[in-house]
Structures are given as structure tokens and as C-alpha cells.
Design goal:
Strand order of the largest sheet: 1-8-9-10-11-12-2-3-4-5-6-7
CATH class: Mainly Beta
Number of helices: 4
Helix content: 10-25%
Distance between the termini: 41 Å
Shape: globular
CATH topology: outer membrane lipoprotein receptor (LolB), chain A
Radius of gyration: 16 Å
Largest sheet: 12 strands, antiparallel
């Protein structure tokens, strides 16, 4: 049984994978300073949202698929991944730089270094603190992104690079007044993450 498959079975699989493409020719611009009232600022101001979807991850030549539930509530993120019929579920609670990892059977671990804990348990690092913004289609404020590709009538961000990862957004869904990612990918040196969002809920 490969390492990632073992992790899923014991409740240890974590988040998102890579698709590529842009339908129309993008324009490349330096990341602008966010202006008050822009959609990016309004997205950053959201305090409650959740998504449900499917995630795939590849690392070190191995791969696994999982169902994903992600809820953001103020300064806390709750992430749950599971296999078919909710088998091998793992739950993660992220509060700023503090992470709680529930592997099931009452086995809960915590750390002030989220990436290091995930690397210890999974064999590779997952940038959860950045993903909290990337799933919304935004660069993380934790570090400046490289050049950003913008396309579409609404000028959606189609791709950017940050923290050693290349982000690509293939499809968006209109949710209330926002265009939110429906299909996205993140590719780094150690892993590729791909996410398909089936449902967005904004509160």
C-alpha cells in the first residue's frame, strides 16, 4: 500500500490539485494594490463561507482522491477530507498559526507549525494558510505574488505564482455578487493539488 493511500485510510489526506488551462489569451500584469470596494477586498472581508467538493493530490509519484468540506468562520478554518462513504476521514482545524489534526480514534495532534505537522504526518508539506485565500481566487497576503494573469469579461485572476506554487483557475461560478473558483489547481515542487467545487455557501 503506498504512503498516501495509507494516510487516507487512517484519516490523513490533505487538500487540493492541479488542472491547467485558460480558454482565452490572458494579459499579464503586476499585482495591483487593492482598492477599497474592489471584489478582491470584498472577498477578503468575508467572515463566513464554506465549500464542498472533490480534491485530488499527487506527491512523490503517488496519488489519491478525497471528498472535501471546508468551512471558514472568522479566524478559524475547519477542513474535513474523506474517502467514499466517508471512510478514512481526517479533520483539521486551523487557527492562525495553530493547527489541530484529528486522525480519528481520538488521536488528535496540535502544532504551532501547520506545514511541519502535515509534512511529518503526510510526508509532504501542504500550504493550508495560503490555500485559505487561494480557494477564493486570491493571492495570500502572507507573501507577494509574482505576475498575475487576468482574463475574462469580469477580469478574473486566472493564474499567479506564490510561495513556490503555481495557481491556475479554469472555471468560475457566480455566487451572490462574487465570481468564485469552481475548478482550480496548485502545483509546487513536491505536490500537485486539484480542486473541483460542487457547492459554495456564503453567509
Amino acid at each position: 500500500m503506498n504512503r498516501i493511500a495509507r494516510c487516507v485510510r487512517h484519516g490523513l489526506a490533505l487538500s487540493l490539485i492541479g488542472l491547467l488551462s485558460t480558454a482565452c489569451a490572458p494579459s499579464w500584469v503586476k499585482p495591483p494594490e487593492l482598492q477599497a470596494g474592489t471584489e478582491q477586498n470584498r472577498l477578503l472581508a468575508l467572515t463566513h463561507w464554506r465549500l464542498e467538493g472533490r480534491v485530488a493530490i499527487q506527491a512523490h509519484g503517488e496519488g489519491v482522491n478525497a471528498n472535501l468540506y471546508w468551512e471558514h468562520d472568522g479566524r478559524q478554518d475547519r477542513v474535513r477530507l474523506s474517502g467514499p462513504f466517508s471512510q478514512g476521514a481526517v479533520s483539521v482545524v486551523l487557527q492562525d498559526d495553530l493547527i489541530y489534526l484529528n486522525e480519528g480514534n481520538g488521536n488528535i495532534r496540535s502544532s504551532r507549525d501547520p506545514e511541519e505537522l502535515l509534512k511529518d504526518r503526510l510526508g509532504f508539506s501542504v500550504p493550508l494558510r495560503e490555500l485559505r485565500y487561494w480557494v477564493l481566487g486570491l493571492p495570500s497576503p502572507r507573501g507577494a505574488p509574482a505576475y498575475v494573469s487576468v482574463a475574462g469579461v469580469a477580469g478574473e485572476v486566472r493564474s499567479f505564482s506564490q510561495q513556490g506554487y503555481s495557481l491556475t483557475y479554469e472555471r468560475f461560478a457566480r455566487v451572490k455578487e462574487f465570481d468564485l473558483p469552481q475548478k482550480l489547481s496548485a502545483q509546487g515542487r513536491e505536490l500537485k493539488l486539484k480542486l473541483i467545487v460542487d457547492e459554495w455557501v456564503l453567509n
